[in-house]
Amino acid sequence: MRHAGYGTRYLKERGGWWHYQRRVPAHFTYVDERGLIQIALRTQSLELAMMRRDALAEADAALWNARALEFVGGDSQLSVWKAADHRYRAAVSRALSQGFVYRPVEEIAALPDIEEIVARLKATDLGKAPSEAKAEALLGGVPEPVDKTTVSEAFELYVSKIAFDDQYNKSEAQRNAWEKTKRTSIDYFIEQVGDIPLTDITREIATQYRDRWQTRMLPQKDGSKLVTPNTANRHIGNMRSLYQRYFKYRGQSDIDDPFKGFFFAGKSRVKRASFSDEFVQTRFLVPGLFDELRLELRVIIYLLIETGARLSEVVNLRPQDIRLDHEVPHIHIRAEQNRELKTDDSEREIPLVGAALPAMRLCPNGFGHYYDRSTLVSANLMKAFKQRDLLPSKDHVIYSLRHSFEDRMLEGGLDYGLRCALMGHKNNRPEYGQGGSLTYRREQLERIAHPFDAEMFG
């Protein structure tokens, strides 16, 4: 039989009989004044003594944790539940060590077998002064805890501990964006259902929540904007993730998921706006147009036009990833310890052609002022574009420059695999190489590079 790895630790033999003996750990003496713990195990069998020792050791550990949590206190329901759970597990283990199954006091009082009741009373050292913990364990004085941790409390734990791995390689801005997206979903649920305990979310409640999203996907009488299936799935999925991962963190892997199977299969029709080549050449690549902007912003605009990179990828280029002295000047987009890329396929090298090359030479060390501040750059550029009437429709945004680059490669006849490699997209066709050498990539991009006036960089 396997035991908790203690060997004969905490066991002491006296006249052929085994005892459980240990000192209260120094870091728990403030919640347990027993000092030296000595309990007769009432057996001469080492095997049975080890089993009872294991139960008592587990009971003491749970009791200390419960008292420590109660001593520290805490406003959250989770803290209260954890303390109650530790105390309950301590009672269960201590009863087992005495040869009894833990039963709540109401169940003990209703036992038809009076002999078990008497045996439990005797085991508490009736007539002496039994310890509170021993009396609770044998006479059922600890109610089974019910976790009343609310949705909002569970989410705070999710952000701080449960989803630690999800955030580990993100930058501060990426973590903030990640949390904002998740929090929005949680707030929607609380707004619709209430900040109820997670254990109170039934299949009926989850179904009602799902049906509310379905209603928002249908035409509204007030003409308000319809919710897309992707949006509804994301918000329901974030609640599903919180529910599943919270109980997994708590050690409950067999709990039924009330959100199971909820998914809208409809496809979202999203308008994909891009700038025409003529618009870019006659409206963007105009000498002096952006002279009032900060130098870094001007350079970023030209890089977006001629590399097709995402705004966040350009803004967060590091000096070592800007390779102007290379035989083929290029930028290397890659992840770092504290910054993730959108996908694994996003890592790539893009030759600098057209206006991007002289622009990059103006900021050879990147954009330190805007590092990890993509949101600020986006806001500044949108303001600049609006002021200069550079947004032909309400569907045009900064990202439209990336769409324009992709369209230009397609219309220019560039190979599909090369287009995927330069855009950082997954290539669904069989891979044969890495999308061509830098020299080959430059030659292909030079075919579609926009002509520009050197005065823009004079």
Task: Walk me through this protein's architecture.
The chain is mainly α and 458 residues long. It has three domains: 11-139, no CATH class; 151-249, no CATH class; 277-457, Orthogonal Bundle (hpI Integrase, Chain A), CATH 1.10.443. The chain has helices at 46-72, 77-97, 105-109, 114-123, 132-139, 151-162, 164-167, 172-193, 203-216, 229-249, 277-284, 295-307, 311-315, 356-362, 374-387, 400-411, 416-423, 438-448; strands at residues 11-14, 17-23, 36-40, 322-323, 330-333, 348-351. It has a three-stranded antiparallel β-sheet with strand order 1-2-3, covered by helices on one side. Strands 4-5-6 form a three-stranded antiparallel β-sheet. Helix 6 (151-162) packs antiparallel against helix 8 and helix 12 (295-307) packs antiparallel against helix 14 (356-362). It is elongated and about 100 Å long. The N and C termini lie far apart (83 Å). The model has no long low-confidence stretch (mean pLDDT 86).
Briefly characterize the structure.
48% of the residues lie in helices and 6% in strands.
Write the layout of secondary structure elements.
Blueprint: E1 11-14, E2 17-23, E3 36-40, H1 46-72, H2 77-97, H3 105-109, H4 114-123, H5 132-139, H6 151-162, H7 164-167, H8 172-193, H9 203-216, H10 229-249, H11 277-284, H12 295-307, H13 311-315, E4 322-323, E5 330-333, E6 348-351, H14 356-362, H15 374-387, H16 400-411, H17 416-423, H18 438-448
Antiparallel strand pairs: 1-2, 2-3, 4-5, 5-6
Helix pairs in contact: 1-2, 2-5, 6-8, 6-10, 8-10, 12-14, 12-16
